[in-house]
Amino acid sequence: MSPPTLEVRNLRTHFFTRAGVVKAVDDVSFTVARGKVLGLVGESGSGKTVTGFSILGLVDAPGRIAGGRILFQGQDLVGLPDAAMRRLRGNRIAMIFQDPMMTLNPVLRIDTQMIETVQAHQKVSREEARQRARDALGQVGIPSPDERLRAYPHQFSGGMRQRVAIAIALLHKPDLIVADEPTTALDVTIQGQILAEAQKLCAQSGTALIWITHDLSVVAGLADDIAVMYAGKVVEQGPVEQVLDAPLHPYTLGLIGSVPSRNRRGEPLRQIPGMTPSMLNLPAGCAFRARCPRAEARCAEPPPMAEHAPGRLARCIHPHGEALAA
Amino acid sequence: MTVFLLRRLLQAAGVVLAMSLLVFLGVYAIGDPVEILISPEADQQERERAVRALGLDLPIWRQYLVFLGNALQGDLGRSFVFNEPALRLILDRMPATLELAIGATVAALVIGLPLGLYAGLRPNAPLAKGIMAGSILGFSLPTFWVGLMLIMVFAVQLGWLPSTGRGETVTVLGMRWSFLTGDGIAHMIMPAINLSLFKISLVIRLTRAGVREAMLMDYVKFARAKGLSPARITLVHVFKNILIPVVTVVGLEFGGTIAFSVVTESVFAWPGMGKLIIDSINVLDRPVMVAYLMVIVLMFVTINLVVDITYSLLDPRVRLEGKA
Ligand SMILES: Nc1ncnc2c1ncn2[C@@H]1O[C@H](COP(=O)(O)OP(=O)(O)O)[C@@H](O)[C@H]1O
Ligand code: SF4
Ligand SMILES: [Mg+2]
Q: Which InterPro entries match (chain A) (predicted)?
């Protein structure tokens, strides 16, 4: 059997700052199979973006991958030489960034930015590269792509710019796309369109997709599996319906409670009390301890990731769903 | 774009007019040319004849109107000293100053851009720190002192380069140029470097700051995520962005370089406008001073216009706003 598209094992990405070591990603593991969508969820600052950058080898000093493996179709990307990594980036593995207003170079035309991407990985003529760029723009629903190719980024709305970024990501029909909150900056209608297109694409082409978001409602309709991150660690993962219907980790439950659409009418939204801890001085033991209604003395020990039911992992000593465990 | 150009041209004309008044008044207030130009032994009659011939007997506002009227016809008065049209004197020496200033600007870009790029890409490398320290020297060492040192070392001690003058020139388009002969270029090297010292430092610092800022931008990270080579990212994505501030500042600085060439031209006895104006100030040759200042004002205004247009060509955001 061929290996899954991506298998991340015990990834640690740390930032060695003057103030101390920030363990932005600390022992993260997950797998994404061909054509599957993994929702990577967590509050801001939980390490989602750094996880994405780690996969593409884009972590800059003072950060570096301090341990673990990133197996892409069986090949370990950690420690891969720059040139080899560059051949994969934008080609077999693509990334879409959070802020569409910032991802395109303001002084280069769209065609320049697309053609260079094609030519970075394939020896094709400029004209052929332009054809490919035009087709890709059409594919993501940009009207009159021939004309739009000659435009500059500031002539596009935010939603259109994100479509351009997606078109660039699709140019080489990658095997894996890391989408880092690509719809957060966009309004709800456009968000819905883009989600639908992403889903269609993965189903059709077998592309594996990591969809990073802090919004559970986005993941619910899109992902196959979900991994919930908190303070640099995955605290719960499993099939998306099961996790959302019967969360094991108190933090997951808290997140679900704070999503408007999942709340029963009339009931107030329940925000998780307290603040995300500072990543610089994480307390030993469960990082969620200070905010957790179920915390007990044992939680001062670091809780291990454990399988509480088939395919249902959680990093908690006292998880919900006792019935499930029994 | 046409409206933009028209408006800018009108503004420019206004600036030139206002400056003409200021220049005229300012120069009028300095010293009394009669004392210098007319021999103390001359009798009263001779004096008056000379004063009338020079137009110095009219009330000052009449003198200004006469000056303005003549100026519009390209006549900025005759030099008291050379008894030649002042404008001709200036224009004769303009090529020398222009080629020096252009040489200095080219040197600043050719030297400053790569050094600044390196310092921006490797901010912690020892060489980068050395470059930055050197740029501080470039800012703070006095031009005339550096000029004298250059002469001491390269002309007097090593004898590699000539210390004064323009060397052999070639006449093209009715003007004499040094940069077309080997001897002329040898004469130009030291003054051009001397004049560009400040500019090199400026370009280094601007480039470095621009590169460091651009490297942190999402679009650079996205370019890397596309799998582009570091060379392409630096030379296209980063470079095109930093070119905007560098071109703007260097362009605007060009007028300053011409004005500053006064010092360099004096040190290297470079026969340009700067040397002429210093000599003219010494003998209070008023028409030449006025003509010089007017030419400089015109140049500044033209340069600003050209920079604005170039800027709008480089930055698509400005260009298209203008169109809308
Ligand atoms: N360049 C950096 N230097 C120091 N710390 C960083 C750097 N980049 C990210 N971090 C830290 O890594 C943590 C995770 O950040 P990030 O992955 O961007 O969170 P998310 O995407 O989940 O909002 C944050 O606490 C942040 O402070
Ligand atoms: S380990 Fe303890 S503190 Fe942490 S989430 Fe579970 S119950 Fe709460
Ligand atoms: Mg993020």
A: AAA+_ATPase, ABC_Ni/Peptide_Import, ABC_transporter-like_ATP-bd, ABC_transporter-like_CS, Oligopep_ABC_C, P-loop_NTPase
